[in-house]
């Protein structure tokens, strides 16, 4: 999914080098989803928020992948902590690509993420980019959310 999204915006990335699955400086076996190098360098972790799978059946565990505070779950929240401790010589961000459905709006999950993550790291405000009209039978509309991580906050890190 990340590669597809990057391919869709590749014409707007003039002068920017895009790498995926880049090793973290302090741990070569852990990989960062996206590294952008250009006028400004970015290390970005990406998560999908899809309450329904491609087959239209509910994905009951999806909020764990966004909100869990436990490192073993590799959630968007723990990605924030991982980036804050990463050692990258770059700006750092976490991105959530969310798909919306009438019975499952994105806003409650995104607000919950912001509340939990902001207890652990400093986040810059997010301005979502909405999309709609996709041809997929289930994943038709949603939004991309991204927050810059400006540092660690919690003593629990």
CATH architecture assignment:
2-Layer Sandwich
Query: Could you give the count of β-strands?
Result: 7
Q: Order of SSEs, N→C?
A: HEEEHHEHEEE
The biggest sheet amounts to: 7 strands, mixed
Alpha plus pi helix count: 4
Separation of the first and last Cα atoms = 29 Å
From the alpha-carbon coordinates, what is the Rg to the nearest angstrom?
Answer: 16 Å
CATH class category label: Alpha Beta
User: How many distinct domains?
Assistant: 1
Care to describe what's here?
It contains 4 helices and 7 strands, in the order H-E-E-E-H-H-E-H-E-E-E. With 157 residues, it is an alpha+beta fold. The protein has a single domain (40-152), classed as Translation Initiation Factor IF3 (2-Layer Sandwich). Strands 1, 2, 3, 4, 5, 6 and 7 form a 7-stranded mixed β-sheet that branches. Helix 3 packs parallel to helix 4 (107-120). The longest helix has 14 residues, at 107-120. It is globular, with a radius of gyration of 16 Å. It starts with a helix and ends in a 5-residue tail after the last strand.
